[in-house]
Automatic annotation (TrEMBL):
The lineage of its organism: Bacteria, Bacillati, Actinomycetota, Actinomycetes, Micromonosporales. Belongs to the ABC transporter superfamily. Coiled coil: none annotated. It comes from the Bacteria. It comes from Catenuloplanes niger. Keywords: ATP-binding, Nucleotide-binding, Transport. This is ABC-2 type transport system ATP-binding protein. InterPro entries: AAA+_ATPase (IPR003593), ABC_transporter-like_ATP-bd (IPR003439), ABC_transporter-like_CS (IPR017871), P-loop_NTPase (IPR027417).
Amino acid sequence: MSLRIEANGLTKRYGAIHAVDDLTFTVEPGRVTGFLGPNGAGKTTTMRMMLGLDAPSSGTVTVGGKPFRDHTAPMGTVGALLDARAAHPGRTAYHHLLCLAESNHLPARRVDEVLELVGLAGASRRRAGGMSLGMSQRLGVAAALLGDPPVLIFDEPVNGLDPEGIRWIRTLMRGYAAEGRTVLVSSHLMSEMALTADHLIVIGRGRLIADRPLDDFLRDAAAPGVLVRTAEPERLAALLGAASVETAPDGALIVHGTDAAAVGAVAARHGVALAELSPRRVSLEDAFMNLTAGSLEFTA
Ligand SMILES: Nc1ncnc2c1ncn2[C@@H]1O[C@H](COP(=O)(O)OP(=O)(O)OP(=O)(O)O)[C@@H](O)[C@H]1O
């Protein structure tokens, strides 16, 4: 079973604040979709509406063609990790999951299975309140997986995880997507999404900014260009002819529309000594900053 998530004109207002503003997008099965935006962009609010925890002011969001709350087996439909500290602090990991399983008519053996899956089998008697944030995240993931759902929704799951934990959750999400499940994961870090997602939905101030494959972002971010330093910048610029050249504040030349080898060849042919010649890339984080500039809730 594969289910898509569809938002249509989805809007949530809190007084004068448009937390989510007319979002229309589809989250497809079989891939990891990154939900990216700066703090306060509206990611959590959107996810809460997907799960029926908040009601839209207008518009709709459906899972498999109907509102989430109309599904008769919620945990068997969507596995969600919104708040890692959601477990009752006095309950052991095992009992937290057992309560969830029983109230959702899921077999008790699933509890042992998911504890094993998330690497908490040895900590099943630990109380949720005494867990590190990393362990709480794993317990949250275990709860999300209990019903073996075709859709996973994770809000900032790498928060509090150490590098090994981050790699673990990344592998888990990619594995579930490869099985044909729908995986939506939010983050405010482009660098994290670049390692995890196949597709990105980017929002800022509640509005849709971009909805495209990760590869498209990578290609644009790679913005081919060459950085050159020489004692004779004007002469080299003139020799480069048609290629567009800008001068950086520190005097370096940024040459577009060509590559380092071609610039080096021109310089060598005309005896221009180069102090530096390097391909120039815009970091993914810079590309994301450029994309969301103007939509930041807080600017320095
Ligand atoms: N219950 C609420 N009452 C009033 N305003 C709210 C409420 N929930 C969210 N907001 C506002 O809605 C906007 C979006 O918040 P939201 O938490 O969805 O963003 P986010 O992208 O998840 O950000 P973060 O990464 O910081 O969690 C923010 O301006 C926030 O202050």
